[in-house]
Each structure stands twice: as structure tokens, then as C-alpha cells.
DNA sequence: ATCTCCCGCCATATG
DNA sequence: CATATGGCGGGAGAT
């Protein structure tokens, strides 16, 4: 019934080339391809565009509709005859033209992203299938994942409601939360670790599986994550109904939202999605099926522009993965938000939070240590900041009452902001309960101005509170840097910090801190340090050419991975046991340092309760408790691997008095941002400016543009998000290749004033370069002020360690390969 | 060969 | 019971 592709194709070919005497064999694609490959990126784009355009679409349909091969042939023929070399010609219904992604595009084209909330728009499956000329089955695939995002919901048979993206923010936030609670990060780590261990097959030694710590915890059959206003309609209340695709899709999205390089490889995703039920069963077929489904899901998510396909390259070659390209989802800190609301009398938790809580409880009942306790000072700081931010956001416009719901995030959808006001008004009678939700979007400010922020920050008890770094994860790029500046003491302390790498530096030595904490820390760090140092073993070359001078370092890296993987558990356990004390009486902080939050994830394993002390994470996290000065040298090859469990960058920790200042915006690298040019000025920049000015790095009138370096200033309550960094990620997406090296210098003394240009250049050395152009970029961030060779702060030591002349150290090189298809 | 993933059988759910 | 949904996995196009 359906026009057979082969038939059409061969006929076409025959028609074109009578001389060819290959009747029914698959026609060599070379035939029609050369003139104008219909599926080059360009044509693909064209296709998409046409799909979006009603007229063209219908025309297209008509064409496809023509079941008569003759017609098609005719058309094709003429097309090719008359438009030789012309890039447009639909060509036969190739497989791609039937792809779910394309279909999804067509589907989406039928409905507005933000339909009027006034009246609901319905979707009739019959119509759709007819108009789009697809089997019903396919529509289900699309609808199902749309359902998972609450972009549609089912009403009844053949009947769905189109919500568009109105719910997307909430959905994503909810999903992120659930994902966090599900400890997906840890699961990911576990899987990756196992992959690693698999590599080093030849070791059966202390296989002290971490499984014990993790495996047992998960069990919950995660049901479909619902949204307050968008419950599953119809009688499908029954539980077990929510099967795969919907839930799978949600889980998949969760993975993106929780993992810090927002990149998820297919196999990892598949394993996690499978393994949730039964741990580790190498069921090949099951795996394959899962992968298939993931592709399906990924296709529609791609159509939604939420993700895009990339490749991660690691030792074993490259594997398919997807990168989140959707909106950032801020961590929701409901606690502060609730109290911040105008409502004096403690109203019950907002519908949304409630439902989310409920949901997550259901999902992950076990160790639900819901109530966090933050370091008091931290809480203050956070609240203060959030409060201010809130003010700022609502200030410019009307004194809108921002509801308790969590969505007062920074503008994530610059392009859609205009539409927000429309949806800010609650739906009249539809869902009384959801009214609250609906209004939460109340007028987010487009571009928070720097000044307000500064003021607000100024209000913060900066000088009194204990240090709490403000972390600014960059939404799209992998690296985030936190600046721990400690005006008065940094100086003293840093003096002690040798910039040698791999040299364990017991905290106690630096500052005579006495607490047992320090002992513990010391112990831990030492071990870690030993391990790191101890290793030495031949390495595989790989991207060595890029950094010849680092060759020697590779070996240790490699060993490190493994060793860390092995001992990770121990560290974690130990760490955990000490956690309490650490959390309460910490007196040392990293300082005078730019700390790349590169992959400090281990500590969070089995540590669900540490979520709170966001600002203190660096203290609690094993990674940070290891006062290894400098950086572990790494090679490009090492960096390539995404989330190598064992990979660690350990910054120096320095004991500081509790009253140190903690302004700490994070600078994220710009390496990956070549394509993200749409950023807007945001609070991040203000924070940075404030901080810099406050500290004297930048003269008080100068503003450092945040874009694209600095993003918002969320005081995250989820360390994982910040901590997990993607630094060591090699992504291939497109043909863009970026190779960047980041240099971080420590401010050894009250930094000398910098002029703006200098600062800027330090920040974004690559700015002048063409953003979209494939190229290699090497840049140094933050050279030592006044330091000698500001241009070559990086140098290799005889021992292979990398360091800079002065107090500058660091910088692992990051090689990011981005290649789009 | 591997990566993608379309197709459609057929078990279930729904009405 | 007739349909609507939607797991699932073979196997073929794309690379």
C-alpha cells in the first residue's frame, strides 16, 4: 500500500539511466546524490522549514500523498531535469523523510508553542494521522513524550489537549528535582565507574563494590511525574499504566537535568533506565530495545530543541550522546521562597511544591532525609540573596506578587518572555487549584540590572557570614569557576601554598587548626594525595600531540582514575562519617583561588543529605578536602572522557577564619559557548562586578560584562549540580573543534588593580574570534596579576607537572571537541 | 560494520 | 467486543 521506496527509487533511477542494467538492486545512491544531496544539512534545514510552513507542508503532503509511483517519478524526473544542481528536490520518501523527528516537527508545527490559555486547543489523533500521513502508531510515540513533558495531556480516546510549552518550566523543574532525589548523578557515576573497571579488566582485587552503598537504595518503580495542573485525565488513574515511553522520557530528561555537563550518552542512559529495576543485568536484547526507545524519545526531544545529538569521545572511541540544549532549570529552593512570599501567615506549601514532594516521596521513599539543615550563616546569606534577587526581579515592573512557586528563576527563555505575561493570569475556572501555579510566572524581569544586584549583595552580611562561595554554573558550558576571595587572609594563606602540583599539603600545616576535623581531613587528603602521587605508569598517547609537554603526566592520570575508582568508596564512607562535624564547625576554606569545579562528584555518592550545605560543599566534599596543591596534570586524552569517575582536580584548601569574605561568582568557561551567543546580561555579571569592585580588582565604575561568561547567581542548594562539572568532557558536535586551555591563577596578594581591558582579555581571550568558526582556541584565564609572562602562564615542569611561574598554577587543559553532524 | 530507528505485530487498555 | 494504545524487536537504510 505504502509506496515502496525501493520501487520508486529504482524506477527513478532506471528512468534516468536507462543504460544502467541493474533492475531491482538498490540503486547506488551516488546517482541522485551528487547533483544535490537532498539531505545535506542545508536541505535538511530546508525540509524543516518547509515543514513549519503550512503551504509548503501541504504541498509536500500532497506530493507524498500521491501514491502513484508514476506521479512521483514524473515529478522527480522533471525536477531533476529542470533543476539540475538545484538543491531542492524532495526526492523519494527516504527513510529520513519518515523519521520521527521530522514527523514530530510537522506535528509541532500544527500547534503554537504557547497556545492561548483561555481556551484549550485539542488534538484529534485521527486528524493528525490523516493530515500527516502517518500510521497512528507513530503519533503515539510523539504524543507520549510530549505527555511526559506535559505539553499535552490526554482527554479521552483520540483526544488530547495541547498545552504547548506553558508547563515546560515547571515540568523540567519537577523532573530535575525528582532526578536529584533519585540520585541519578550517582547512578551515572556508578555506571561510568563500572565501565572503567571493565577496562582495567586485569584486576580482581578489592572489588569492594560500591554497589552496596548504592544498589540497595534504589528500588522505587518511579511512576509518572505529574504536574499539579496537568494530571492525567481520564480514567487511567490506575497505577501500572504509566509504562515506558512516558516515564522513560521523563527519566531521560532527568538525566540531563541533573548531570552537569548536560550531556548524556545513550548507553549510560539506557543502563540507568534499565538498571533501575534490576541492577546490572547484561541483557543484550533489553539493552538494544532500550536504546531504540531512547532514540525515539531523543528524536522528539530534539525536535523540541531540548537536546541535540553529539558524540562523546573517550578511550573506547566515540559514542552517541545527547546534549541538553533546553532551558536551564534552576535548582528550586522552596524553603526560602516560601517564606519570602508576601503571605505572612504560613500558607500551606504551594500546590506545586507539595505535589512534587509527594511525588518524590513516592518515588524514593527510602532514605528520605527531607529536612535539610544548613549552616545558619549560609542560610542567611542565601536567603538574603534570594530575597534581593526576588526584589530585583519584581521591582522594575509592577509589584507583582510572586507566588510561592518556584519559578521566579532568571530569564531562561529570553525569547519567550514576552509571552509570559499572558500566562501569568490564572485560569479562571479551569483548575482552581492550579491558579496558584499559573500565576507564578508573574512577570520575570528580562534583564536584571547590575545595580540592584550589587546593592542587594551589599546588603548581604558578607563580611560576617562565613564563607560561602556563590557558584555560577554556566548553563551550557561545562566549566564553572568559583572564586574564593579572601581579602585579608588570602594573602597570608596563599603564601603558604606552593604551587607545585601533586604535592599533598596537609591543612594543618598551613594553618594551625586544631579540630579533629582537620585531622580527619588531613588523613583523607593525604591518602588521596599519596595515591595520586604514587601512580606512575605508562600511558596511552592519544591526544598527546596537543600537549606534548604534558606527556609525562598522563600516566599518573590514568592510574589515578582507577585508583580513585577503587578507593572512592572508602573515601566517601570516611567522609560521610565526618560530615557532621565538618558541616558544623568548619573553619577552613579554599581561598585566593579559582577553583574549577571540575568533577568533584564522588563525595556525593551515597550522600544525599549533604545537599544542603551548598556553599559548604567544597568543604565537605572529599575532593576539596584534599589539599593537594595545584592540579593534577592531565592530558587531553583524559579530558576527553566524560565524567570519568576517577578524574579529579583537587584544589588547595586553605584554612581560613570563618569571617572571610565569600563573594564568589563563578566564571564559566567560554570555550563551549561559541554557539551560545544569545545570552543576556544577568545578575551574574553584577555579582561579579560587585565582587571585583569590592575587592578592588576592578575600579568601581567598571562593569564586567557577564555575557557569556557569567550566568545567574543561583545559590544552589544542590551541590551536585555545581560540583559535578563537566570539565573533562570531550564533546563532538558539529565540526567545530575547540581546544582550550584554562589557566587559573591564584591571587596571591591583594590583587593589584586591573584595568578593564586586561581583565576582560583575561576573561575572554577568545572573544574576538569568530564564534561559529571551527577552530582551536587556547586561552588562559586569570593570569597572575602583574605576574611575568602573562602570556605564558602555563609551563611544564621538569617533573611533568604544570605550573606557572608564580603563584599561578593550574590549568588543566581542556580539549573540547565539538563536531556537529 | 555500526549506528539509527522505521515498521508494524500483537498484547493491553479503554470505552 | 471493537478500538485505541503502546510495548517491542526485526531488520533495513544511513554512515
UniProtKB/TrEMBL annotation:
The keyword Transmembrane does not apply. SMART domains: E2F_TDP (SM01372). Residues 337-352, 790-808 have a biased composition (Polar residues). This is Transcription factor E2F8. Residues 95-164, 240-326 form the E2F/DP family winged-helix DNA-binding domain. The gene is E2f8. SUPFAM superfamilies: Winged helix' DNA-binding domain. Signal peptide: none annotated. Pfam families: WHD_E2F_TDP (PF02319). Residues 56-65 have a biased composition (Basic and acidic residues). GO terms for cellular component: RNA polymerase II transcription regulator complex. One of its GO terms (biological process) is negative regulation of DNA-templated transcription.
